[in-house]
């Protein structure tokens, strides 16, 4: 049976009659699953690239507006000096990267940055802290930030490290919409990348976040010297979370000199797009975010990632501490591709 896609919200349709785009008659949609097997994911990785992209784009159009991309803006609310030893991160106190450690910034500074993000078109404001976990004494200030940013009409997200049940519940009650807590790599690869916490620690916080009623933002990093098997393991672990994360950031490692993984071989753009496409197929309803790494990506690579099903990006000229494309560059790219910000 041919599936028809309504393309009436394409910019071109404003001046032309409604059109439909037909999907191949032999296309069988994947049922939404939290029980993906390694063999199924291996089969997706083995597909010819064009077949994979077509499948990913088809899944994408079944569940999402074809030409809309969600925009989130990051702010580092507590930079550097982190107790964890994540091998990709310039904010760890274990490595000498020249980054100056700072204290938690004040709420007024956060609110001013959120106002600027909103004016720039962001729909979600994500506040990140270089902590292993927040201290209870910081919770009042954190909840105040959430409340004030939410009152501005922005969606709120925080990433603060591990949480206790009480902390998760407090953030949720303060109005925090999303909590970002990445698994970063496959469970089998975890010890190579981080030694100061376990994969299970990560899952524990993710469960508390779910139980508190917040939405889960959870993804990983590609380009850290992981194997093809590790990429499969990462995607399996993400998609088999039950339910799957509402938001799935796929980061390309931003290599930082001084970090243990800073001289990893960069991921090939086609391989990166493949990971995005498979994330889209495995987690059809989730937002898949083309996250860190855009600064050094060509427009063509980013377009390929959108075609593969990415429908969210981080906007603003800095991520947490590293560079990101400017508003002008992103506006030009969206205009060129006919993408509308969401
Ligand atoms: N400290 C908290 C934590 O680790 O959960 C929150 C902040 S931490 C910087 C958030 C995420 O940023 C990490 O889980 C990782 O996925 C991503 N990240 C950090 N450094 C990165 C880099 N150099 N390149 C790509 N992603 C990076
Ligand atoms: C995510 O997955 N990527 C963002 C956000 N969640 C917190 C962070 C990327 C950080 C890149 C390095 C930096 O700018 O410090
Ligand atoms: Fe700390 Fe987060 Fe960086 Fe790990 S990724 S060192 S937990 S700031």
Notes on the structure:
By secondary structure, the chain is an alpha/beta fold. Helix content is 36%, strand content 15%. It has eleven helices and twelve strands. The protein has helices at residues 38-46, 49-63, 107-119, 139-151, 165-174, 190-193, 199-212, 228-239, 269-282, 299-307, 327-337, and strands at residues 4-6, 20-22, 68-78, 124-129, 155-159, 178-180, 215-217, 220-222, 247-252, 287-290, 312-315, 340-341. Strands 3, 4, 5, 6, 7, 8, 9, 10, 11 and 12 form a ten-stranded parallel beta sheet that branches. It has a two-stranded antiparallel ribbon with strand order 1-2. Helix 2 (49-63) crosses helix 9 (269-282). The two termini are 31 Å apart. The structure holds S-adenosylmethionine, 6-(5-methyl-2-OXO-imidazolidin-4-yl)-hexanoic acid and iron/sulfur cluster. Residues 74, 128, 159, 180, 182, 219, 249, 251, 254, 291-292, 319-322 line the site of 6-(5-methyl-2-OXO-imidazolidin-4-yl)-hexanoic acid. S-adenosylmethionine binds at residues 82, 88-89, 91, 128, 130-131, 159, 161, 181-182, 184, 221, 251, 253-254, 256, 292, 320.
Topology:
Blueprint: E1 4-6, E2 20-22, H1 38-46, H2 49-63, E3 68-78, H3 107-119, E4 124-129, H4 139-151, E5 155-159, H5 165-174, E6 178-180, H6 190-193, H7 199-212, E7 215-217, E8 220-222, H8 228-239, E9 247-252, H9 269-282, E10 287-290, H10 299-307, E11 312-315, H11 327-337, E12 340-341
Parallel strand pairs: 3-4, 3-11, 3-12, 4-5, 5-6, 6-7, 8-9, 9-10, 10-11
Antiparallel strand pairs: 1-2
Helix pairs in contact: 1-8, 2-9, 3-4, 4-5, 5-7, 8-9, 9-10
The structure holds S-adenosylmethionine, 6-(5-methyl-2-OXO-imidazolidin-4-yl)-hexanoic acid (DTB) and iron/sulfur cluster.
6-(5-methyl-2-OXO-imidazolidin-4-yl)-hexanoic acid (DTB) is lined by residues 74, 128, 159, 180, 182, 219, 249, 251, 254, 291-292, 319-322.
